[in-house]
Every structure is written in structure tokens, then in C-alpha cells.
Amino acid sequence: MSLVGRRDSVDWRAEAGKDKKLSRIGIIDIGSNSVRMVVFASQTRLPIPIFNEKVTCGLGRDLGKTNQLNPEGCDLAIQTLKRFCGMAKEMQIDTLKIIATSAVREADDGKRFAKKIERSFGHKVNILTGSVEAELCAKGVLGANPEADGLLGDMGGGSLELVSLNQGCAGKTTTLPLGHLRISDAVKESGCDADTIIDEHLKKIGWLSDLEQKDFYLVGGIWRAIARIYIQQKDYPIKIIDNLTVDKQDAIAITEVISKLSRSSLKKITSVGRRRIDTLPIATLVLRRIIDKISPKRLIFSSYGIREGKFFEMVPRELMDQDPLISACEYYGFQAGRFSVARDEVFSWVKVIFKDIDPREIRLIEAACLLGDIGWPEHPDYRAIHSFTRVLRLPIAGITHRERVLLALSIYHRYGGDEYGPEITITTKLIDQKDRDLALILGLVLKLAHKLSGGVTGLLIQTKLVKTKNGYLVDFSNKEHLFNTTYVANLLTKINKHIRSIEFC
Length: 505
Known about the structure:
Elements: H1 12-18, E1 24-30, E2 34-41, E3 48-56, H2 63-66, H3 71-90, E4 95-100, H4 102-106, H5 110-121, E5 125-127, H6 130-144, E6 150-155, E7 160-166, E8 169-176, H7 180-190, H8 194-202, E9 215-219, H9 221-234, E10 244-247, H10 248-260, H11 263-267, H12 280-294, E11 298-301, H13 306-314, H14 317-320, H15 324-336, H16 345-350, H17 359-370, H18 383-392, H19 401-414, H20 422-427, H21 433-453, E12 464-468, E13 471-475, H22 480-483, H23 486-501
Parallel strand pairs: 1-4, 4-5, 6-9, 9-11
Antiparallel strand pairs: 1-2, 2-3, 6-7, 7-8, 10-11, 12-13
Helix pairs in contact: 3-5, 6-13, 8-12, 9-10, 9-12, 10-12, 15-17, 17-19, 18-19, 19-21, 21-23
């Protein structure tokens, strides 16, 4: 599914005029290791969490040995659900969904436990089959990255879901008893080492060989912990997990590092929670065996999984058809903007300069246009660097880390940022000179567009950029008294100077 050309989005001004309060969707996920509640603002293309809380209950602890849910885990889960359901009521959540996965699905007393929850709190518990769990996870990843292609792996405490992805479409799925709790139980019960157990299950999945040399998308908190260790070990400049991309050799290297670290050494890694320490070695081993099995081109970590998939399942089709990046940037741009410039006005004006650019980059240009007024509340002396930092860290999807830097750098130049300070220097290691040139030109053109528009709908379209043999000029349409200023002339001269000196298309 191509993102190029997918530019329809919600008119946030119209929506905000109808209702200031976005409706809310609550999802409670009862997993083998933890119970989590997330509340999302709906009426948006992307799940925007307004509440997120997790309690480690350990429902699936010793499940392989007893075939029963852990009694202490059940008690803690009930206490947790009492709080969560009470919070949902107080927060006036429009829709509350409770889903249960591997532990409740496989335990002999799982259905009885689900019925107890329903009687106690008045909400139905949907016990997901393995295939439905895998499909929801795929919906989460594809909702954030509609062009995902390769293998998806979602590792939890009780199971490992594997899904084949083919250019934005989910294919074959399977569920394996390879959650970190289940593997630990299996090692204790069978006396076999973990490698043998993992390989025995993986070799049963014949279609894995079809995905060799493709990307491997990783979902689940335990694998996100591995990503955090990678970020810390490599001194990686962006601390965002979503769409963190690691090549095969670096992935192998980090698995080897983790496998050699003692428990006391793992505890010293500040980016990983204490509760993850005991399960990290097994999760790392599973990862390594999959890498050895399919030899992936890259590992791509995703922050979007089963809960986000459930959210996407409830989102209207017209919203899901939108480009996630463009929709999110329009939302944040509207929230931060001052004036009422029409949604496409700046983009239509700016894109004249970039008509020969790679279509993939057109999305970034539109995104930058939508975020072009995001820095106005900041202090003028810090507007450029604060805007850079904010755009770099926006909770948006459908964007690589390289694209994050390019987008943020464009807004930095839009607000007059010139020289690179330490923070920018570090992050720009993720882009090349061509990207830096593109960001500079885009930022300067955005600066010019906002100056001409005055932030008012209808002014900018009374002008247009015109290409001549000597560069670009602005056609003022006989309204020179509004637009023909020394500032505009000087800025246009600067733009033409840079365009002549660099290759940005």
C-alpha cells in the first residue's frame, strides 16, 4: 500500500468547532505477564494516549506446569481491574474493551477467571484466539506503517505471534508457546536448554523461509527493552523506539552483548526496568534464533501492537485511509497554530520549488508545511531550537528516524536557525548532505510563505513562485503594497543563492 498521494485528512478546524472534547476509547489488555489499560483520544487517525498504566501481575507464571492461572497473579489482576474499570467510569470513557491473551486463553481456569471479571465489573472479556491476537498485532503495525513488508514478531509472556507482511498486507499467521514465561517453564519441566525448545518450534513454520532477507518488525515490551539497550550502548541520538532501524550485524552484536552481561550488569542499565532483567536473556535468545533462521535485512522496532490494532479496528475507514504522518502533523499543526491559513494553502504554494523531487519526499514537505507554525509560542531567541526538538520528538508514526531529523531540521531553518549546535550536530549524523540541503531550502521557503501569508487564509494564494532562468521570483499579482518588502526581497535572494549552490532535487 503506497503512501504517496494519500493526502486526504480531517479538517481539524471544522471538527474542533463541532466538539471541543474528543471521544475516548479505553482498552484493557490482560496479558500473561501484565495487565495494562490505555485510553486513546478517538476521532484521530493515530491513537493518541491520554492515559497509560501497567501492572505486572504474572498471570501466566507456572502455567506450563499447572495449567492454571497463577493464584497471586489473579488476585492482583482483580485489584488492578477494579481500579481500571473505576477510572474508566470517572474518565467518562465512551467505549471500553477488555481483551485477554495467551494465559487466559490456555489456562484450564481461564474462562472461569474471565467470567469472574465480567460479573465483578460488568464488562465483557474477549478472550482472543492466537490467530486473532496475531491479526490485531498486524493491524497495529500496519496502521502505523502501512507499507511494512517482511516478518512481524510479537513476544509476550505467554506466546510469540508471527505474521507475514506483504507490502502493507497481513498474510500467514502462527502462535507459538515461546513467550518468556512459557520458555522458562518449559526449560524447568523438560530439562532441555532454551535453544533446543525455541528451534523445535521455529522449524515447524515452513513459510518462514519465504521471508529471508526481508525486514523483521519487533513488537512487545521485552523487545523494546532490547532496543533501549541498543540505544544506550550505541549512544544513539534519538531515544524513540518506534521505527528504530538496526541492521543485521548490529542486531547480532547487541544480542551477543546482552547474552554476556551478568544480572548485576543488566541492573546497571538505566533504560531497562528491573522487572525486565530476568526475562531479557530468554527474549534475546529468541531474537537471535529468529535472526539465524531468516537472516533479516533489518530489524525495525514498533511501538504499535495489539492495543493499537484494537484501536485501529474501531477507527472509521475514511480515517484509516489517510496517511498517518500527514494526519498527525495536521492535528499537531492545528493544535499549535495561531491563525486560519487553509490546510493546503502553504503546501500548494511551496511545492512549486520541489516538483522534481522524489515522490517519497513530497510527504515530508507537506508534513513540514503543516507544522510550519508550531514554534510560535516559544521565546523568539529559542524558537528555532525548541521547534527542532519538539518536531523531532512528536508522537507521530509513518516516519523513519532519518525523516524525523530532516523534518525537524526544516522547521529549525523555518524559524531562522542557522548554525548547528551540539544537539543538532548529534542528530544530523542520521542524515546526509543532500538531506541537509533539502531541509535548508524547505525551511527558507516556509519562512517566506509564512511571511507573505500573515497567517491569514487567502493572502498567500494571491502570490505565486515563478521560476526564471536566474532563479525564483514572487509574482505579487498587482498587490505590491502588501507583499513587496525589503525583507521578502532579501529572503528570496538568499533562497536563490542556496538553490544555485546545492543539488537538492
